[in-house]
Amino acid sequence: MKNNFEEKLIELAKKIDIEIEEHDAVLYGLYKKEIEKWSKKVNLTSIREDEEFIVKHIIDSLMLLKKIEIPFGARIIDVGTGAGFPGIPIKILRKDINVYLMDSNKKKADFLENAIKNLGLKETYVLYGRAENFGKNPEYRESFDFAVARAVSALNVILELCLPFVRIGGFFVALKGKEPEKEIEQARGAVEILGGKIKDVIYYELPGEIQRSMVIVEKMRKTPEKYPRREGIPEKKPLS
Ligand code: SAM
């Protein structure tokens, strides 16, 4: 029998036309429990209430699957994933994809290792460290079909951290708030320098009339080798 959390999740996901099966709803419930358990040790999210957690964390992450076609077996990196958003909710529904969860916070990386083990998620990897350093590593550079990021930094900063990971022809997707226009304007120079092109901006609504957006950047050319610059510089001196 489904519990309250699972029922609510299935019902709210239906509102955006996403079918969640019972066994996956159980996994999302387990994921929330893991977050609660670790919250005494590490600040993962301030959202506790079931419905708010479902809408703002799970459904918001799953919107990526609604709005973007992710091919079977795709390789995806979630930069600055924190407690695993959007990477873990996506992985639970799309077991075929390879997900790399990157974060520079050690306690969060430990939480992620533990969560993927307890949820039994395969082909899910934790990369503990800074994007500025992983982005220079040939094992990861220009090797992903998609890079995604939510709530990490302004677009002109996060582009320098994410676009180096994306292969030519792949995409970087930034999950943003209601009004991304100003950030997009400020990021036009960075997109060009890093070898990308803004392909689309998608506006969407979460249950409860919460407005969000997605900025989609296509990788057109190789990113010049000097990017990303060293730790902290993308944030201190954003490309313009
Ligand atoms: N994406 C998650 C979400 O939407 O809930 C977490 C957002 S949290 C506000 C930002 C995360 O980015 C933090 O966990 C932080 O440790 C990580 N972060 C910030 N700068 C980073 C960098 N340069 N490389 C890797 N992780 C970074």
Describe the protein's architecture and organization:
With 240 residues, the chain is of the alpha/beta class. The protein has a domain at 150-240: Rossmann fold (3-Layer(aba) Sandwich), CATH 3.40.50. The protein is 40% helix and 23% strand. The protein is built from 9 helices and 7 strands. The chain has helices spanning 4-15, 22-38, 50-67, 87-93, 106-119, 131-134, 155-162, 181-193, 233-236, and strands spanning 75-79, 98-103, 124-128, 144-150, 166-176, 196-206, 210-219. It has a 7-stranded mixed β-sheet, with helices on both faces. Helix 1 (4-15) packs across helix 2, helix 3 packs across helix 4 (87-93) and helix 7 packs parallel to helix 8. The longest helix is centred in the first third of the chain and has 18 residues, at 50-67. The radius of gyration is 17 Å and the shape is globular. The mean pLDDT is 97. The structure holds S-adenosylmethionine. S-adenosylmethionine binds at residues 80-83, 85, 102-105, 108, 130-132, 150-152, 161. S-adenosyl-L-methionine binds at residues 80, 85, 131-132, 150. Pfam families: GidB (PF02527). Specifically methylates the N7 position of a guanine in 16S rRNA. One of its GO terms (cellular component) is cytosol. Its EC number is 2.1.1.-.
